[in-house]
Amino acid sequence: MMKIGVQTGGVEEAHGIDGAYRIIHEAGFDAADANIDHLYSYQAIVNHQSVPAFDASDKDCLEYFRPWKEAAEKYGVDNYQAHAPFPSYILDESGEQNDYMIQVLKKCIIGCDYMNCRRLIIHPFFLGYHEQLDPQTEWDVNIERYSRLIPEAKKYGVILCLENMFTAYRGKIYSACCSDIDVACRYIDTLNEIAGQKCFGFCLDTGHLLLLGKDVKNAMVQLGDRIEAFHVHDNNGVNDQHLAPYMGVLDWNRFVEGLRAIRYDKTLSFETFNIWNTIDKELCPEHMRLIAQAGRMFARRAAE
Description:
- With about 300 residues, the chain is α/β, with parallel strands linked by helices.
- It has one domain: Divalent-metal-dependent TIM barrel enzymes (TIM Barrel, Alpha-Beta Barrel), CATH 3.20.20.
- The protein is built from 13 helices and ten strands.
- The chain has helices at about 10-25, 40-45, 50-55, 60-75, 95-115, 135-145, 150-155, 180-195, 205-210, 215-225, 250-260, 275-280, 285-304; strands spanning about 5, 30-35, 80-85, 120, 160-165, 165-170, 170-175, 200-205, 225-230, 265-270.
- An eight-stranded parallel sheet has the order 9-8-5-4-3-2-1-10.
- Helix 1 runs parallel beside helix 4, helix 4 (about 60-75) runs parallel beside helix 5 and helix 11 packs across helix 13 (about 285-304).
- The longest helix has 20 residues, at about 285-304.
- The chain is globular, with a radius of gyration of 18 Å.
- The two termini are about 15 Å apart.
- The model has no long low-confidence stretch (mean pLDDT about 100).
């Protein structure tokens, strides 16, 4: 039976990690998407800064993952998936920061195993609109860098999930790595062939699909059982707002049809952190309950 999850981000900033898992549990969720990306901020990455969590040894770095592990165990919430720090790849002439990110991602895999989390979402290795790589170079970079993570994925039993991305220029949304679902499928199949077993899957982001005008059901059917995780959220079709279902313009009936078509039976996880910035925080726990109820409704209708 499908479980319903939500990211720890948003609530985590307001109530801390322990408080986040308590509220997630009380709202009726079964699972969490652990925002371990908080260990290494976007700003620190683009500024080429290292951080203690990932400078530590493989053994010592586990202490930094302990809060997510202990809170999940305390409240009976499954750490179904986790989100790695991002961006995974930046414009880096020396290559030192991008190599450091491989070290970061390897330690995140180890941390996932420690947290009993079996799926790690790792953004593809791509650059923004102005620095974007040509398609063949982008393909080569991604295959090379994801392949470097295969030994850890195998050793620790963690599936690495690519995600459909986008970029923007002057208020206009453009496609980016894995937004072409044909190419996304080819990435997963090629990487698993290199690994010799299933080490890679896909995290389908519904909001990113919507920004690019892509049909959610068609994308789900095309990816099929490559889908290992979801980032379920809504938006106005223009901005990446990370809102709850029905607060934007996504066709949720098509989403349910997609779940039914692929017979999805894993965890359905929401990435709706922005409700904590959109409505009064006193109302947010109740809004979390509504999101959990929406997930249960989607699961029930998909099973009909």
